[in-house]
Write a structure and sequence with these properties.
The protein is of the alpha+beta class. The chain has two helices and five strands; from the N terminus they run βαββαββ. A five-stranded mixed beta sheet has the order 4-1-3-2-5, with helices on one face.
């Protein structure tokens, strides 16, 4: 399983960013979650059995209409949790 923690910076809170990412996730075989952080960033965990799915999902976020809202993002490979089902907003 491939899993990534992604931290998005920019105008990513108060603009429907999490909901748009959740809609994008429906087009990919990914599990995970997304949430706002107190410092203004958005944190996401995305995982999939297929590395192409999770990598494609992360690329799709940047390539979508959300791209201009993202000033920077940091991607960290992490151990995939076994208890994820679906993609949720926290």
């Amino acid at each position: 399983m491939t899993a990534y923690h992604v931290f998005f910076e920019g105008t990513v809170q108060g603009v429907g960013f999490r909901y748009a990412v959740k809609r994008l996730a429906a087009g990919y075989e990914v599990s995970g979650w997304i949430r706002n952080l107190p410092d203004g960033r958005v944190e996401m965990l995305a995982s999939s059995w297929d590395p192409d799915e999770v990598n494609g999902f992360i690329r799709a976020i940047a390539d979508s209409n959300l791209g201009p809202l993202i000033r920077d993002h940091v991607i960290e490979a992490v151990a995939a949790p076994n208890d994820l089902r679906g993609f949720t907003i926290r």
